[in-house]
Amino acid sequence: MEPAVITHFYVHLAGGPGAPDWNGLRRLVKDAVSSGRLSYPGRPDAIRSYIHIDDAASATIDMLHEDYEDSTFVVGGVESQRVYDVLMTIGEILGISSQPEFGPQIDTDHYVRTPYAYKPTHARNFVPQSYVDLAQGIHEIISDLDSH
User: Fold this and answer.
1) What digits encode the pLDDT tens for the residues 33-84?
2) Which residue, of 36, 83, 110, 145, is most buried by count of CB atoms within 10 Å of its CB?
3) CA angle 134–58–49, rounded 5-degree value
4) Four-way CATH pick for 5-146: 3.65.10.10, 3.20.20.120, 1.10.3720.10, 3.40.50.720
5) Which pTM was predicted?
6) In this structure, are residues 91 and 27 in contact, taking their beta carbons and an 8 Å threshold?
7) What is the rounded CA–CA span in Å between residue 68 and residue 49?
8) What are the start-end ranges of the E strands in the chain?
């Protein structure tokens, strides 16, 4: 019996207690809270698929309990969103009405639309049945920042 291979590709965690400051969504929210501005060091059309840490953990546990031997999975969010739209959601929650600012991309090797690179492995996406909404995750990040 071969175990399942589970890949958590650069998971953009939508909240979750104790997310590190290098986490992309936490960094966006933290910058907005501290500066009162919405900014992203990249392109406005960049697309990300966010998943809450609790959802990623639950999906991983579900895969271990199911009959998925010798399978490869990618754990990801339910839907993809443009970074511009994520920033507008952050602004709405924080009461920031200015338009987001986009700057030169710091990491030029970072993807714009997909984290996938060609690999000759057939992987299936594993998306949770129920999930924590992105806006709820943003609220959790704000609460976590306020408590520190």
Assistant:
1) 999 999 998 888 888 888 888 888 888 888 777 677 677 777 777 778 899 9
2) 83
3) 35
4) 3.40.50.720
5) 0.78
6) no
7) 24
8) 5-7, 12-13, 39-40, 47-51, 72-75, 80-82, 101-102, 123-126
